[in-house]
Fold this sequence. Notes:
Layout: E1 5-9, H1 18-32, E2 36-40, H2 46-53, E3 58-59, E4 71-75, H3 77-86, E5 92-96, E6 112-117, H4 120-129, E7 137-139, E8 161-165, H5 173-184, E9 188-192, H6 203-206, E10 212-215, H7 217-226, E11 229-234, E12 237-241, H8 244-252, H9 266-278, H10 282-295, H11 298-317, H12 323-349, H13 352-362, H14 364-387
Parallel strand pairs: 1-2, 1-4, 2-3, 4-5, 5-6, 6-7, 8-9, 8-10, 10-11
Antiparallel strand pairs: 11-12
Amino acid sequence: MRKLTVLITNHSLRERTGTEMYAFELARGLLAAGHSPVLYSPRPGALAEKIRRETVPVVDDLDKLNSPPDIIHGQHADETATALLRFPTTPAIYVCHDWYLSMDAPPRFPRVLRCVAVDSQCRDKLVFEHGVPEERVSVLLHSVDLEKFRPRPPLPARPRRALILCNQTKENAFLEAARAACVRAGVALDVYGIGVGRPCERPEELLAGYDVVFAKARTALEALAVGAVVVVYWYRRLGPVVTTAELERLRRDNFGMRAMGPKSTPEEFGRDIERALARYDAGEAARVSERVRAEAGRESLVAEFVEIYESVIEENAALARDEEAEARAAAAFLRSLSLFKAKEYDVIYDSATFQARNRLLRLPVVGGVARALVRAVAGGRRATRNES
């Protein structure tokens, strides 16, 4: 096996969000398989430091790399394009993680030779909205580090403790309805996530203490691997309880939006929570967990990516470099950035706050005082900088 240097890009490396943890876990898997992963993000933070402690290099400036990588594993369009422009002979794959975000649209560069979707909806986004040829798209489903997420002891016959683990959850009427439903069912509910001010640093330890877990995407898969009864959940919507009959479909949809029920009121949401708890089945949860642990280990995903990397590297070596096509792609990308920034400025200038500020500054007396105050503050800042 050839040892590969893999540059993984991501918008940020600050918190335990989906793409950030995906990049982290993939890097750990590549390192364990004998490869050399390097992570790039212009927005590093606490997670970047944690990744470094695992002896994986992390850079916020690609000039810190003194040699080109063998392959660019692109996540998020801007960071992928940055890597492509910095290393003009290195091929790339692009991984789409999100249906909604514009930053997850694939960059159109000649050296992006394959695209990967993490679920069925991202596959459709690549093929039907961005024109990526079907033969250039692979679907590689999420995986679990089975060493970290170990099986819990057998579930009790009746649920006692439930967990909501979702960064989008907020304190609102839907969460109150969920709490009330759990009280009626005799189940204690705990809530974790960035949105409620309780980020979870060690989900592998937390999940083992709960009988029922309400979660989506990667977290749902991790909870299944541990052995909990899992209900597909996204802060105001509820999907099904995961069973062996539904597992393949739900996993292909990444336990995400396509698996969710319709929008509901808080009262309907509470009743849905009660119905989900009533479907608790410890035996079925054990069977689902056994399948997940047999089919969704991280090593399999890493091996699939390495196979794609090697194929792309080989294909790129046989291609003649088209500098004109590269320049056109770079120009088109910069144009799209300019248009996006212009839209952001329009939002700011059209906002009620900005309009009120302009009206205030046009007032004869108040506006003059406000302008004088701004000039005084600016002058004070310049003086402080000169003194220092």
